[in-house]
């Protein structure tokens, strides 16, 4: 009974999440951490993280 109830309750948020996930793909993917290392012309290395 519980295993039958769990996929059903999970399928509803998944459908809503998938529907709202399609237009704003950038904010969702922004959750991934990205470390960027930039070397300037004067050999200064700047590191910043995009989340």
Write up what this structure looks like.
- Residues 1-31 are annotated as: Disordered.
- It comes from Bracon brevicornis.
- This is FERM domain-containing protein.
- With 51 residues, the protein is α+β, with helices and mostly antiparallel strands.
- The protein has one domain (2-50).
- The chain is 49% helix and 24% strand.
- It has two helices and two strands, in the order ααββ.
- It has helices at 2-21, 25-29, and strands spanning 34-39, 45-50.
- Strands 1-2 form a two-stranded antiparallel sheet.
- The N and C termini lie far apart (40 Å).
- The mean pLDDT is 67.
The helix/strand order is HHEE
Number of strands: 2
**Strand composition percent:** 15-25%
Helix-strand category:
alpha+beta
Protein name: FERM domain-containing protein
Organism: Bracon brevicornis
Region (Disordered): 1-31
Sum up the structure in keywords.
FERM domain-containing protein; 51 residues; 24% strand; two-stranded antiparallel sheet; alpha+beta; rod-shaped
């Amino acid at each position: 009974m519980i295993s039958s109830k769990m996929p059903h309750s999970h399928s509803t948020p998944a459908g809503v999440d998938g529907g709202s996930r399609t237009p704003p793909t950038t904010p969702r993917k922004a959750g991934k951490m990205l470390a960027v290392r930039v070397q300037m012309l004067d050999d200064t290395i700047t590191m910043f993280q995009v989340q």
